[in-house]
Amino acid sequence: MWNKQKTFNISDNNFEQCVKCTICTAYCPVVPVNPDYPGPKQAGPDGERLRLKDPDFFDEEALKLCLNCKRCEVACPAEVKIGDIIQAARIKYASKPPKLRDMIMANTDIVGTFASTFAPIVNTAVGLKPVQRIMDTVLQIDHHRQFPSYSGLRFETWYKKYAAKEQEKFEKRVSYFHGCYVNYNFPQLGQDLVKLMNAAGYGVDLLEKEKCCGVALISNGLIKQATKQARHNVAALKKTIVDKGNPVIATSSTCIFTIRDEYPHLLGVENSAVREQTELATRFLFRLVDSGKLKLVFKENYEARIAYHTPCHMEKLGWSLYSTSLLRMIPGLELILLDSQCCGIAGTYGFKKENYLTAQGVGEPLFNQIEQGDFDCIATDCETCKWQIEMSTSATVQNPISILADALDVEATRTLWQKEKAHQTS
Ligand code: SF4
Ligand code: SF4
């Protein structure tokens, strides 16, 4: 077996609890589009029973088709951790080391550092058809795929240059886990978060040294490296949460889900000291508004018809309500909830040539709904859902934080909490 790491105890997943109802199979988005996939029941609890008797029952190619979307877990009435069982089996029994392609796509910090340094050249090169054909043939990255463009100015650099000093003026602080996408590709989202939190009366700190959450390392089988990064991040989170007293917020549902749930469930990295204080920014803000501690004031002339797409990991967390409730507070914003369906990309999964048709088949009902809806934009909390929707439809996609920041009346919101603070101290 390639991965020697076995810190994870597979019995924790309670596969014995399966009552064989097959509901999970009805909810799995891969089953209807790829006949080679045995489905969650067979790949999960049924397969686990067999694999524990004889590891030869491990079918690497079949289990690789799982998107790790966890929609089966959400549907399961017996709370079997089906997705975890499948991923843990892939970790435990994998016989082959990851391909060069998988190592490149999983190492987001290394690739991001290089690509953002040479952003204009890299962005032009990966957009050229001959380059896409070469990547398709040599690396097996499907030629239909477009990589998100890299930013020449990383978020961390922007923050140090333009925002860090200002944050010292705030008494109340949060720390921001920005993730690779914000740092290397789309710093605007991080800037929107800082704008929103500052208007709400919170200074934004960064972690001492943040590393990629490791979701792509896990899905591509680089478990040792994922575990090392998870340990590093948990230590950094502890420093900010326990030592500084800052709660931690993020703008990526995938980063937050990985840190909270995949670290202990798949990597065996203990995170109980930081888990509850690490959450999505929309959940943090919603709780402030809901408890009456914060009032957000929005521009009077804002108008938009926006549809919300629920990422799979938001479905699993049960947190889309926080993002949609905040968006609904914007007067002039008409919010439509799209049917909760997987978009098919699952991080790096949909970029792989062998998965392209499955990914697009999974996402097709969602793409059709979007194309038929006449929306100004799509809102979603996951960056890879954004890439997939923008690659597969004519829509543009924004994180709810950016929509809120755009619609916010910053001065009016700031004046309100400043008045409240003055009232409390007088
Ligand atoms: S995690 Fe998603 S793709 Fe994998 S078995 Fe469950 S529902 Fe199917
Ligand atoms: S939904 Fe749960 S209980 Fe039903 S077959 Fe699937 S794993 Fe078993």
Summarize this structure briefly:
With about 425 residues, the chain is of the alpha/beta class.
Description:
- The structure is a single chain.
- With 426 residues, the chain is α/β, with parallel strands linked by helices.
- Helices cover 53% and strands 7% of the residues.
- The protein has 22 helices and eight strands.
- It has helices at 23-27, 40-53, 60-63, 71-75, 82-93, 100-106, 108-117, 119-127, 129-139, 155-167, 179-185, 187-199, 215-219, 223-243, 253-267, 281-290, 312-317, 320-328, 356-371, 383-392, 400-407, 410-425; strands spanning 173-177, 203-206, 248-250, 278-280, 304-308, 333-337, 377-379, 397-398.
- The strands form two sheets. A four-stranded parallel sheet has the order 2-1-3-4, with helices on both faces.
- It is globular.
- It starts with 22 loop residues before the first helix and ends with a helix.
- One iron/sulfur cluster binds at residues 28, 30, 40, 43, 66-72, 82-83, 86.
- One iron/sulfur cluster is lined by residues 28, 30, 40, 43, 66-72, 82-83, 86.
